[in-house]
Design brief:
The structure is a single chain. The protein has about 325 residues and is of the alpha/beta class. It is built from eight helices and 14 strands. The protein has helices at about 30-45, 65-80, 115-125, 155-160, 165-170, 195-200, 230-235, 305-310; strands at about 1-10, 15-20, 50-55, 85-90, 95-100, 110, 130, 135-140, 145-150, 185-190, 210-215, 260, 270, 295-305. The strands form three sheets. Strands 1-14-2-3-4-7 form a six-stranded mixed sheet. Strands 8-9-10-11-13-12 form a six-stranded mixed sheet. It has a two-stranded antiparallel sheet with strand order 5-6. Helix 1 (about 30-45) runs parallel beside helix 2 and helix 2 crosses helix 3 (about 115-125).
C-alpha cells in the first residue's frame, strides 16, 4: 500500500495522527488481501484515528454473500480495536448496478440504502470504537473533532454530478457544521469533493481546519508502471485538475485531481487516493486494476510550536 504523508498545523498543545482509507470497493473474497494490507500498516505504525471515506463496498450485492460480508465486518471490527474509526459512506455503498439499459444505453444504478443499513451500517455501529453517525460531530480526543457528512440517496443516485439543486435540499442537515468551535481542530469527512467546495462557498466550513474527500480515485497518477505523480511534482503540477479560490464554483478535470489543497481562510482539503482504482462494477476494465497501486493517506496534526522549532533546526 502506497502512503501519502501530510502535515496539518494545529494550535493544540498535543498532536494527533490519522490514517485515511477510501474507495475500497470491496466486491468479493478476492479483495481480502487488500484489507489485510491495511491491517498490516496499522500493525507497523500507531494512529490515533482511522477515517474511512466512502465506497467501502462496490455494490450492495456483495452484502448477499455471507462469507465476504463476514470478512468485511471483521475487518471493520479489527480497525476499531486498533484506533477510533469514523465512517463516511459513498454512492456505491447505497446502490447496486444492473445491466438493464436506460435511454443512453448505459446500465443503471439502483438505490439500495436499506440493504446497506441493515446488513452493514447498523451492525458496525455496534462495534467498539466504530462511529457511523451521519451529519454529526464526534470528539476524537481533547480539542480534536471529526464531522461526518453522508450523501442522500437522491444526490448519490440521481445526481452523480453533484447538481446544486440536490445539494441545496441537503443543506439543512449541514447546519451542525456552523456550531464547530474555533478553538478546536476540526476535520470533516465528505466523500465527494464537490460537496466540500459547495459548502465552503456558502460559509459552512469557516471553522473546519481540514476536509477529507475521495471519489476521484487519484486519476492516472496512481499508475504503478509510470511515476506520474513524481513527474507532475517536478513540474509543479501537484494540484493539477482542481480550481479553487479563483473560480470556487468549478472543479475541472476532477478525475485527475489529487493531494492537498489550501483555501484562503486557512482550511485545507485532502483528496484521498483509492485502495481500488478500477472496481468490479466497471466490467472487464477491472482486470487492469493491477496496473494501479493501492493508495492511502497518513495525516499528522502537528502543534504550531513544534513546527516552529523544526524550522529553526
Amino acid at each position: 500500500m502506497k502512503l501519502f504523508n501530510y502535515t496539518i498545523p494545529t494550535n493544540q498543545q498535543e498532536g494527533m495522527k490519522a490514517l485515511v482509507i477510501s474507495d475500497l470497493h470491496y466486491a468479493s473474497l478476492y479483495d481480502n488481501p487488500k484489507l489485510i494490507d491495511i491491517l498490516m500498516e496499522l500493525d507497523e505504525k500507531k494512529y490515533d484515528a482511522i477515517f474511512i471515506v466512502g465506497d467501502i463496498i462496490d455494490s450492495t450485492k456483495v452484502l448477499d454473500d455471507e462469507y465476504s460480508l463476514n470478512f468485511l465486518l471483521k475487518f471493520i471490527k479489527d480497525l476499531g480495536l486498533v484506533a477510533s474509526t469514523y465512517i463516511a459512506y459513498g454512492d456505491h455503498d447505497i446502490a447496486y448496478f444492473t445491466e438493464q439499459i436506460n435511454k443512453k444505453n448505459h446500465g443503471l444504478w439502483v438505490a439500495d440504502n436499506k440493504n446497506f443499513y441493515q446488513k452493514f451500517l447498523n451492525i458496525v455501529a455496534g462495534f467498539p470504537n466504530v462511529y457511523v453517525t451521519a451529519n454529526k460531530t464526534h470528539v476524537i480526543k481533547d480539542n480534536y473533532t471529526v464531522s461526518i457528512i453522508n450523501p442522500s440517496v437522491e444526490q448519490a443516485i440521481n445526481s452523480i454530478n453533484g447538481k446544486k439543486e440536490i445539494l441545496e435540499k441537503a443543506l439543512i442537515r449541514c447546519n451542525f457544521l456552523k456550531a464547530l468551535r474555533e478553538d478546536t481542530t476540526n476535520t470533516l469527512l465528505c466523500y465527494d469533493p464537490r460537496t466540500t467546495l459547495y459548502l465552503h462557498s456558502l460559509g459552512y466550513l469557516n471553522t473546519v481546519d481540514l476536509s477529507i474527500s475521495a471519489y476521484t480515485h487519484n486519476g492516472y497518477t496512481q499508475l504503478r508502471v509510470l511515476p506520474i505523480a513524481k513527474i507532475l511534482d517536478i513540474f509543479g503540477a501537484t494540484h493539477k485538475g482542481i480550481v479553487l479560490e479563483r473560480k470556487p464554483d468549478m472543479l475541472k478535470h476532477f478525475d485527475i485531481s489529487r493531494g492537498k489543497f489550501d483555501f484562503y481562510n486557512g482550511m485545507s482539503m485532502i483528496i484521498n487516493p483509492a485502495i481500488t482504482s478500477i472496481p468490479e462494477s466497471k466490467g472487464s476494465l477491472h482486470k487492469l486494476n493491477k496496473l494501479f497501486y493501492e493508495g492511502a493517506s497518513s495525516i499528522e496534526y502537528v502543534p504550531n510550536d513544534e513546527m516552529k522549532r523544526e524550522r529553526r533546526l
